[in-house]
Amino acid sequence: MAVKLLGIWQSPFVLRVKLALSLKGVEYEYIEDDILNKSSMLLQYNPVYKKVPVLVHNGKPMAESLVILEYIDEIWKNHPLLPEDPFEKARSRFWAKFVDDKFVPMIIRMLRITSDQKDNAAKETREILKTLEGSLDPNKPFPEDKSLSFMDIAIVWVGYYTQMLEKMLDVKLLDDENTPLLNTWFRVVLNLQVIKECLPPFDKLLTHYTNFHERHTTAS
Amino acid sequence: MAEEVKLHSFRGSPYGCRVEIALNIKGIKYDFIQEDLNNKSPDLLKYNPVYKKIPVLVHNGNPISESVVIVEYIDDAWKGAPIMPVDAYEKARARFWAKFIDEKFIPAIFKAFVSHGEEQDILEANEQLQFLENELKVKGNKFFGGDNINLVDICAGYIAFWAGAAEEALGIEVVTRDKFPKLTEWCHNYTNCQVVKDNLPPRESLVAYYKWLFGKE
């Protein structure tokens, strides 16, 4: 097939690419890689980071989910993801980058957090989410399947994975007092058909990361 | 309406310079607002409440932050003298390398400077540099952007000027010249571009600053 996607089921970055391809109605071959035993294909296509997602289009590989999203948006013109206006485009890129620069290291930390560090980390996460809430325009209607944008795709997974962390660690992160608009936004967007179809099963995700957390916090 | 372009930055900042080079490429006139990083202006805090950092470009009252986001904005907002490649795949590769430089390379080389050239740190920085050396070798061009500089060249500018100043300040060699012949040649070509030359800070002040920053007084 002309379009191949190398991924792992639990990756939110792979999810972003799946969403973009789904919204544009692009047919692709999905190849599940093994994080503990990376395929030679992955190492060949992404020698710099050795990570998924990797999109291969007509034999040409590319890595980094946000880079891939922009590529997809340029090649397949239907359902445009990025706004036309340069300033709005820059805004979208800024917030997508914010999620990667601030929220991702936090979630990585949370997945290895010990019980004594938990509350502090939870407080910091709530602060990051509060800042993220600033990306939303309270006067704008919530997105629908047909209006999901680059920024929506870049951000939506944060809600799902945060809910998973809350259950796993028994902490409050998506506090309705702290981030009421963001919480509502997540509730609405995570319920959209195209999103639901691409999300990994919640219980499977919870089990997977609970095991991960246990392995990384239990003294050997 | 007359165009109003302001840049909140700090003279000598490699990230601020990226924006100035991009503005220069497009021939845009702008007001440079020097920020005191120990006493940031109310405007800066208003325009970049998330990070409170420079550079921030303000175009007709609209603020944009994060140097790579700003450079792409400049390319989108002003036509002519393109900074990004035209081909979608080449664009993806340019964005990939820009991200790599900021997320992998610069932190690695900075670590080597902080440790005053600890062997392991130099090795790791060199590993990252090798990727960029290979990219130049494979393409066989004067610049990452071909005959003209593009986003990758602008981001890699750190290697061409700032890294050398830090090396001089610390009396170490991190960007091992004979290991990276293409990069060395690229550094020379890059710093000789008119749009770059005009925007580089005075080297002696930068060396003195790095002596202070990395504790080599």
From TrEMBL, chain A:
All copies of domain GST N-terminal, residue ranges: 1-80
Record-annotated GST C-terminal domain positions: 85-212
Keyword Chaperone: no
Catalytic activity: RX + glutathione = an S-substituted glutathione + a halide anion + H(+)
First-listed, main subcellular location of the protein, grouped into a coarse class: cytoplasm
Enzyme Commission identifier(s): 2.5.1.18
Family: Belongs to the GST superfamily.
Gene3D superfamilies, per the entry: 1.20.1050.10, Glutaredoxin
Listed name of the protein: Glutathione S-transferase
Cellular component aspect of the GO annotation: cytosol
Subcellular location: Cytoplasm, Cytosol
Record GO terms (molecular function): glutathione transferase activity
From TrEMBL, chain B:
Coiled coil: 115-142
Domain GST N-terminal: 3-82
GO terms (BP aspect): glutathione metabolic process
Chemical reaction(s) catalysed: RX + glutathione = an S-substituted glutathione + a halide anion + H(+)
Residue span, GST C-terminal domain: 87-214
InterPro entries with a match to the protein in the record: Glutathione-S-Trfase_C-like (IPR010987), Glutathione-S-Trfase_C_sf (IPR036282), Glutathione_S-Trfase (IPR040079), Glutathione_S-Trfase_N (IPR004045), GST_C (IPR004046), GST_C_Tau (IPR045074), Omega/Tau-like (IPR045073), Thioredoxin-like_sf (IPR036249)
Keywords: Coiled coil, Transferase
Gene Ontology cellular component terms for the protein in this record: cytoplasm
Matches recorded under Gene3D superfamilies: 1.20.1050.10, Glutaredoxin
Cross-referenced CDD domains: GST_C_Tau, GST_N_Tau
GO molecular function: glutathione transferase activity
EC top class named in words: transferase
The protein's Enzyme Commission number: 2.5.1.18
Family the entry assigns: Belongs to the GST superfamily. HSP26 family.
PANTHER family per record: GLUTATHIONE S-TRANSFERASE U8, GLUTATHIONE S-TRANSFERASE, GST, SUPERFAMILY, GST DOMAIN CONTAINING
Protein name: Probable glutathione S-transferase
Species whose genome carries this gene: Ambrosia artemisiifolia (Common ragweed)
Organism lineage: Eukaryota, Viridiplantae, Streptophyta, Embryophyta, Tracheophyta
